[in-house]
TrEMBL record:
PANTHER family: D-2-HYDROXYGLUTARATE DEHYDROGENASE (PTHR11748:SF119), D-LACTATE DEHYDROGENASE (PTHR11748). Its EC number is 1.1.99.39. It comes from the Bacteria. The keyword Cell wall biogenesis/degradation does not apply. InterPro entries: 4Fe4S_Fe_S_CS (IPR017900), FAD-bd_oxidored_4_C (IPR004113), FAD-bd_PCMH (IPR016166), FAD-bd_PCMH-like_sf (IPR036318), FAD-bd_PCMH_sub2 (IPR016169), FAD-linked_Oxase-like_C (IPR016164), Oxid_FAD_bind_N (IPR006094). One of its GO terms (biological process) is lactate catabolic process. It is an enzyme of class 1 (oxidoreductase). GO terms for molecular function: (R)-2-hydroxyglutarate dehydrogenase activity; 4 iron, 4 sulfur cluster binding; D-lactate dehydrogenase (cytochrome) activity; D-lactate dehydrogenase (NAD+) activity; FAD binding; metal ion binding. Pfam families: FAD-oxidase_C, FAD_binding_4. In the N-terminal section; belongs to the FAD-binding oxidoreductase/transferase type 4 family. This is D-2-hydroxyglutarate dehydrogenase. It comes from Salinispirillum sp. LH 10-3-1. Residues 48-280 form the FAD-binding PCMH-type domain. The keyword Iron applies.
Length: 1015
């Protein structure tokens, strides 16, 4: 709902009047003037933060024509429009104080694939990896490779003329653009492609804006061809942003696409693109070359290029050491052995080929070269070879994470982008970087480096605490020194990531040709309404943005008190890299984003909202630490009247279209599955469930809780009393009246039913004992050596009892002596819903039990990954790492104790659908399931799946039912209902098995249940 004009200031009134006019004109997309959406889209992957007036989500080119046509009328000539794709820009390219036009939510369709002619036509909101997944069955791919390929859109790539790994072979985005469709400022459409001079004359004769554009650009080339050719350095990363040097392509044809590629949304809205495609190489390999200094890796790059690789990437020791602490390391560590020595620099040398023979010849040539120089001063100290697409992609996955990994450095000073994509001729790179490092060292800054040494581009991220005003001033100081340095080495300040706010240096780099850029801007956008202040302005009266005059996140963050900052550090260190906007439905990160395409429903979005919430409270002199303390002292009964009044007032205001910012944050958190994939997969380790819990604790000290929270939170405590008389629970839960009350009053679609199997009775039958002091004391040395204590969780024990018994039985068959710890509430549901005091009591009580039994030196294991991992995560955050005994996942324990592999008993594999928390927070344990099965002679393959959509009680809640099913449909359903995998699937998570039963009517066994059957 749009706000009332009478409540707004003049600028806001103008923008709201514009939005009203747009809506009245038939705009079919979504208009979002709400503060939460504006806050979330006020940042990208840069240091800047600019609050827009509104966000709009067009559904079609017609919607964009409505936006531009109305903005082209006199009442709205001051309206500013800025296109946004994946939000991965590092220089504020898509940030604006006007209207953000997000093309990624709806305009993301692949329109046509012509495999025979090797081209594709797409809407520009399509994500690069999404496109290549669709092209893979045809053996084709869209070439320019990016570290952000799983969230960067084609439109964003075009607007920054993106390139990355392999650009020596594959070039930049513009090299693969065949045709573009652009909505111009007057609402007309521009169709651009390479054209002959005859066609060009026809276009120039038109009296429409497209004719003006063609005439102006043609005249620029005709008048300034000599100056243009003299000005631009011969770099692989040629000057982006109105690429004057390529107005005429290599075949001499006029090509307006080369002006639009790299234009950063300053010329119009690019809505569709026709792209040329390449054939996927049949095989590939990486030669990982190690050095004892980073300088050596840089200087040796040119000799490596003599061996004609496809690409060479470099990584320094800072990035390598950060990778060792990340989830990505378990998949690549075999290629970076400790035995090599002290690795300070790495060159990743890629070879691709269409046959194994061709690949081997290339690798053998490189190996011979390395062996001939290894050990000499400045030469490699060792190398390894990764063969095959799977291994190569794992290492590239680590390299792609480099940007995010740098952001996870400890301390307040964090690596930030502002001089991170300089480009110089490759032969100058080593000398340039040595001087670059001298600049940073001279300013006492730490930094990390990685990049594309084959084409002279290195990504450098100095570590600065932007909350400190004195340190923030170094952005200007360092930038100006680097500008001088790249000019000295005949290079560019912006070799890969576009200009954005750095456009203030355009006049210096373009010199006499800068007015020519202004002519281009004026021809396309005479009113200066498209993303103004970047690349060039329409005339000299309008200033370019400056790097230290645009608001930074640090400017706002420094208003948050230190204690408050530390309390929500799990959110506050988010650097905006957007790894949580991962397109791939078969990746765990982030299911609520995949279901909604709403950036408020992502770790980055939620972190942004919490940071802004802290800042707003601080402006009013309120500290969240004080609010938390008050919440923990609050009397539940005495506080009810006040909570009820506030909740009623909020309900009334919502009906009038007025939403408080607290409610917007709460709505964002309500969609979170608390799956903890962000904690494991985010390179910054943003932990949404942790800061969500802290926010909810404060929020519900002011507002009434929904009944479902009490139902969920108390379940672990109530269920044990119903278990002996399960009909007292199951019969009512199956009745129509209770189901109605659950759905319409408590907010629960349903609840699982208690198992018909009695654990205590079955344990007696199987001679399985309880884990207590007398039992453990009486164990013989042989029994103790084989003993293991199963730590129960409420959901598996009471709702899936047969699985617990299968685990115990399988352990016995494997020669172990299992014991069962008496049930104690884990408290995980309490933590998820912000019941801090109750969770703290549960954690302390459970830990006391564990510590008491740990004195007997018998290992603990847990069945359900989500519950078991709570001990090493939430418990240790609360009580301290050394206070909580280790509770292993089943496969972690068995992998330590079973032989590596047994005699293969069957060629046909079984398939594991792993739990999301297990896969992202204990990643090595997934392969350990394979080890366990292999030890008994069975093959287990890990299926690539995302989240099942249940995540504890999320899928049981009424408001989440639709999203829960949508998440399941995106990844799990096709595997669960695949006849070829019938009776071959296992699932390690209780929630996952519940979801599969609910939505596919398929009972998936736990891996130990299958193993018990096989044994």
């Amino acid at each position: 709902m749009l706000p009332k004009l009478s409540e707004l200031n003049p600028v806001q009134q103008e923008y709201q009047s514009y939005l009203h006019a747009v809506k009245a004109a038939g705009f079919s997309g979504e208009l979002a003037p709400d503060y939460a959406m504006r806050t979330v889209l006020s940042t990208d992957n840069s240091i800047y933060q600019v609050l827009p007036q509104a966000v709009v989500f067009p559904r079609s080119a017609e919607d964009l024509q409505i936006l531009t046509r109305i903005a082209n009328t006199t009442p709205f000539e001051n309206i500013v429009l800025s296109a946004r794709g994946g939000g991965t820009g590092t220089n504020g390219q898509s940030l604006t104080d006007g209207i953000v036009v997000d093309l990624s939510r709806h305009m993301n369709q692949i329109l046509e694939i012509n495999a025979e002619e090797r081209w594709v036509r797409v809407q520009t909101g399509v994500v690069k990896d999404q496109l290549n997944a669709a092209l893979k069955p045809h053996g084709l791919f869209f070439a320019p490779e990016l570290s952000t390929s799983n969230r960067a859109t084609i439109g964003g790539m075009i607007n920054t003329d993106a390139s990355g790994q392999g650009s020596v072979a594959y070039g930049k985005t513009r090299d693969h653009v065949l045709e573009l469709t652009t909505v111009l400022g007057d609402g007309s459409l521009l169709h651009s492609q390479a054209m002959s001079d005859v066609d060009l004359e026809t276009y120039c004769a038109s009296d429409r804006r497209s004719g003006t554009i063609h005439r102006v650009v043609k005249e620029i080339w005709d008048q300034h061809e000599t100056a243009i050719k003299a000005k631009f350095p011969p770099l692989n990363r040629c000057l982006t942003g109105y690429d004057l040097a390529h107005i005429r392509d290599d075949e001499g044809r006029f090509n307006l696409n080369n002006i639009l590629c790299g234009s950063e949304g300053t010329l119009g809205f690019i809505t569709e693109a026709k792209l040329n495609l390449l054939v996927v190489p049949k095989t590939s390999a990486l030669v990982n070359v190690f050095y004892d200094s980073f300088e050596s890796s840089l200087r040796d790059a040119q000799s490596l290029m003599s061996q004609k690789p496809t690409s060479i990437e470099t990584v320094d020791d800072v990035v390598l050491n950060l990778a060792k602490g990340d989830i990505v390391w378990h998949s690549v560590k075999e290629f970076f052995p400790d035995t090599v020595g002290d690795i300070q620099g790495i060159n990743l040398v890629e070879y691709t080929a269409d046959s194994e023979e061709e690949l081997n010849n290339k690798i053998n040539g490189m190996a011979a070269h390395l062996n001939s120089v290894q050990g000499q001063p400045g030469m490699p100290i060792g190398y390894t070879i990764a063969r095959g697409t799977e291994s190569v992609n794992k290492i590239w996955g680590m390299r792609k994470k480099s940007v995010g990994l740098l952001g996870n450095a400890s301390g307040e000073a964090r690596p930030i982008p502002f001089v991170e994509d300089t480009a110089v001729p490759p032969e100058n790179l080593a000398d340039f970087i040595m001087e670059f490092r001298a600049v940073l060292d001279g300013n006492n800054l730490k930094y990390g480096m990685f990049g594309h040494v084959d084409c002279g581009v290195l990504h450098v991220r100095p570590m600065i605490d932007m909350k400190d005003p004195e340190q923030a001033q170094q952005v200007r100081i360092i930038t100006e020194q680097v500008v001088a340095l790249v000019r000295k080495y005949n290079g560019l300040l912006w070799g890969e990531h576009g200009k954005g706010v750095r456009s203030e240096f355009s006049p210096e780099f373009f010199g006499d040709l800068y007015p020519v850029l202004q002519q281009v801007k004026h021809a396309f956008d005479p009113r200066n309404q498209f993303n103004p202040g970047k690349i060039a302005t329409a005339n000299d009266d309008i200033a370019l943005l400056k790097i230290d005059e645009v608001t930074t996140r640090g400017d706002l963050d420094r208003t948050i008190p230190v204690q408050v900052w530390d309390q929500f550090s799990d959110a506050n260190y988010c650097n905006g890299n957007g790894a949580c906007h991962n397109w791939n439905p078969d990746d765990f990160m982030c299911p609520s984003w995949k279901a909604t395409r709403d950036r408020r429903q992502t770790p980055k979005g939620r972190a942004s909202l919490v940071r802004e919430w802290q800042r707003q409270l601080a402006e009013r002199g309120i500290k969240t630490t004080d609010l938390t303390e008050a919440a923990r002292r609050q009397n539940t009964l005495l506080s009810l009247p006040g909570k009820a009044m506030r909740t009623l007032a909020d309900t009334f205001n919502r009906r009038r279209g007025e939403v408080d910012f607290n409610q917007e944050i709460h709505d964002s958190f309500a969609g979170c599955l608390a799956c903890k994939s962000c904690t494991g997969q985010c390179p910054i380790k943003v932990d949404v469930p942790e800061f969500r819990s802290r926010f909810l604790e404060i929020y519900y000290s002011r507002y009434l809780r929904p009944l479902k929270d009490y139902f969920i939170g108390s379940l672990e405590y109530v269920i044990p009393y119903f278990a002996p008389v399960r009909s007292l629970y199951n019969v009512p839960m199956n009745s129509a009246p209770v189901k109605w009350l659950l759905k319409n009053v408590a907010g629960m679609v349903d609840s699982p039913l208690l198992s018909n199997t009695n654990l205590r009775r079955e344990m007696t039958k199987r001679d399985i004992q309880w884990a207590n002091a007398p039992t453990l004391s009486s164990l013989s040395a042989e029994e103790k050596d084989k003993a293991v204590i199963l730590v129960q969780d409420a959901f598996t024990t009471f709702f899936d009892t047969d699985t617990v018994l299968d685990v115990l039985s399988a352990l016995q068959k494997l020669g172990f002596h299992p014991l069962v710890m008496p049930f104690q509430p884990n408290g995980k549901p309490l933590h998820v819903h912000g019941f801090h005091n109750a969770f703290a009591r549960a954690a302390k009580n459970h830990t006391q039990w564990l510590k008491g039994l740990s004195a007997f030196d018998v290992p603990f294991i847990g069945v359900d990954p989500s519950m078991a991992l709570t001990f090493r995560s939430e418990y240790r955050k609360l009580l301290g790492k050394d206070e909580v005994p280790e509770v292993l996942l089943i496969q972690e324990f068995l992998a330590q104790r079973l032989p590596v592999a047994g005699l293969l008993k069957s060629d046909e594999p079984y398939y594991l659908m792993a739990h999301c928390t297990e896969s992202t927070n204990a990643a090595p344990s997934i392969k350990q399931w394979q080890q366990v099965f292999a030890s008994q002679g069975y093959r287990l393959e890990i299926l690539s799946t995302g989240c099942c959509g249940m995540a504890g009680t999320y899928g049981h809640e009424t408001r989440n039912r639709q999203n829960s099913e949508s998440i399941y449909d995106q990844s799990w359903r096709r595997h669960v209902e695949d006849p070829a995998k019938a009776n071959r699937l296992v699932a390690s998570g209780y929630s996952c098995r519940t979801q599969s039963k609910r939505l596919s009517n398929t009972a998936l066994p736990h891996p130990m249940s299958l193993l018990n059957q096989l044994l």
